[in-house]
Write a structure and sequence with these properties.
Oligomer: single chain
Helix content: over 70%
Shape: elongated
Largest sheet: none
């Protein structure tokens, strides 16, 4: 159980760099702002790790959770949400 949690956390930290990069590129080239930046990062993380799970035949539920954690870590959702309240 500990190795699964460690793997999830390390994958989320490592993948957050990729998701942050994708989010920043889209944010600079579109009018994406406010809470939608957080939503976009979460979706990118879930889609990225879901695709990895399907390609490499990994457990889907754990990969989707890792994608969610990755998206969350990439934008620092707790800090970003307090800055974007009312930015819907």
């Amino acid at each position: 159980m500990e190795s699964i949690l460690t793997t999830l956390i390390l994958s989320a930290i490592g993948g957050s760099v990729v998701v942050s990069g994708i989010t920043e590129v889209v944010k600079q080239n579109s009018k994406l702002s406010g809470i939608w930046v957080i939503v976009f990062a979460l979706v990118v993380g879930v889609v990225l790790f879901g695709a990895i799970a399907l390609v490499f035949n990994l457990p889907l539920a754990e990969s989707l959770l890792t994608g969610f954690l990755t998206g969350w870590a990439s934008v620092g959702a707790f800090n970003s949400y307090s800055q974007t309240k009312g930015g819907i």
